[in-house]
């Protein structure tokens, strides 16, 4: 759902080029280096500056359609690319916006982390913060966790 949200925003909204240039301290009128100019020509883009590249990008995005609200998630074997499972679902814009908001609150330091749900505790085996997590009681690399622990308000997960 996040990819659809990003895609639809790229094709519907104006790209914030001024913010891009300011954030990365780019001079939009500076000429591209020879390698980038060649890459642009090879891609069918006539661009001499970064501003030209951004304008081409904006124009291309305006030509693209929004993604369908009916989404398909395909699980394929990495070995032979055979289909393992396919899930169909409908895009829920309000749900993904809420999930993004929750993540941003954590990343921006506006809320504490919380532990994963019981069915996702296997993720603790890959977490760099198990030594700081009160829900984690494993030792010697074990991924055991307290099953009776209240996971609703502690560390380890973004959500």
From TrEMBL:
Pfam families attached to this UniProt entry: Exo5
Keyword Translocase included in the entry's annotation: no
GO molecular function: single-stranded DNA 5'-3' DNA exonuclease activity
Keyword Nuclease annotated: yes
Keywords: Exonuclease, Hydrolase, Nuclease
Signal peptide start and end residues: none
Family, as annotated: Belongs to the EXO5 family.
Classification via PANTHER family: EXONUCLEASE V (PTHR14464:SF4)
Name of this chain's protein: Putative exonuclease V
The species this protein was found in: Medicago truncatula (Barrel medic)
């Amino acid at each position: 759902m996040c990819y659809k949200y990003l895609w639809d925003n790229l094709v519907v909204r104006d790209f914030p080029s001024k913010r891009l240039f300011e954030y990365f301290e780019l001079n939009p009128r500076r000429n591209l280096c020879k390698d980038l100019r060649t890459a642009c020509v090879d891609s069918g883009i006539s661009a001499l500056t970064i501003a030209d590249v951004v304008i081409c990008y904006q124009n291309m995005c305006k030509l693209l359609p929004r993604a369908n609200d009916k989404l398909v998630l395909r699980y394929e074997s990495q070995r032979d690319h055979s289909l393992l499972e396919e899930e169909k679902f409908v895009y829920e814009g309000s749900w993904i916006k809420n999930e993004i908001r929750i993540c941003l609150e954590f990343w921006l330091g506006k809320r504490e982390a919380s532990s994963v749900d019981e069915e996702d505790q296997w993720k603790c085996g890959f977490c760099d913060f198990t030594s700081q997590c009160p829900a984690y009681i494993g030792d010697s690399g074990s991924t055991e966790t307290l099953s009776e622990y209240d996971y609703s308000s502690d560390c380890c997960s973004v959500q």
